[in-house]
Specification:
The chain is mainly α and about 70 residues long. The protein is about 75% helix and about 0% strand.
C-alpha cells in the first residue's frame, strides 16, 4: 500500500502562485537584459502573488472542518 499526501489549494491560492511564477520570470528576463519595466512588474507580481498565496493558505488553515 502506498501512502499519498494530498494538499488542497484553493483557486485563489493557485492564482497567487501563478502570479508569483510570472513575476519570477519577468524579473529574470529583466536581469538578462530585458526592459526595465519587467523588473518592476516582476517584483510586484512576485511579492503580490506570494502574499495572496500565504493569506489564502492561512484562511484555509483557519477554516472549520467537518
Amino acid at each position: 500500500m502506498t501512502r499519498r499526501i494530498v494538499v488542497r489549494i484553493s483557486a485563489l491560492a493557485k492564482l497567487g502562485l501563478l502570479a508569483a511564477m510570472v513575476g519570477v520570470g519577468l524579473a529574470l528576463w529583466a536581469r538578462e537584459g530585458g526592459p526595465e519595466w519587467a523588473r518592476v512588474v516582476g517584483g510586484v507580481c512576485l511579492l503580490g502573488g506570494a502574499a495572496v498565496y500565504v493569506i489564502e493558505r492561512f484562511r484555509f488553515w483557519r477554516r472549520p472542518r467537518d
